[in-house]
Write a structure and sequence with these properties.
The protein has helices spanning 2-22, 27-52, 60-73, 95-98, 100-121, 128-149. By secondary structure, it is mainly α. It has a single domain, classed as Up-down Bundle (Four Helix Bundle (Hemerythrin (Met), subunit A)), CATH 1.20.120.10.
Length: 152
Amino acid sequence: MKRSLMAALAVAGLATALPAAAQFQKPEDAIKYRKAAFTLMGNHMGRLGAMAQGKAPFDAKTAADNAAILETVSKLPYVAFLEGTDKGETKAKPEIWKNWDKFRAAAIKMQDEVVKLSATTRTPGLTVDQLKTAVGAVGATCKGCHDDYRQQ
């Protein structure tokens, strides 16, 4: 049973990785793709952060909408960290490829926190304090990755 599960996971991983690699004709295309995904993430995280910090009016529906978009977009950039995309117009540090497992673990941690944030924003009676806590947890994961894997 365990072998079958591992084989199925390996095949599923290859099935998702190959189309991702094939969609980028050149390394520059992958870099543009991931930069666009990170830009979207930053935009929607910024909207949530502004509400959490009282810099924008708090609105539970708007928070939920932005968190849902963030949850979807947070899954996008990592298919574009391919061989050859460590050079060119990128702020990605070489440590990403040297410490791939640690980088992926950080990405998964961020995605998990985004899922929690999204669930929190769908809570009936959402308060700004609940939003602030959930946004803070996501922000900490973003900062950790930026500190370790993004050039300034």
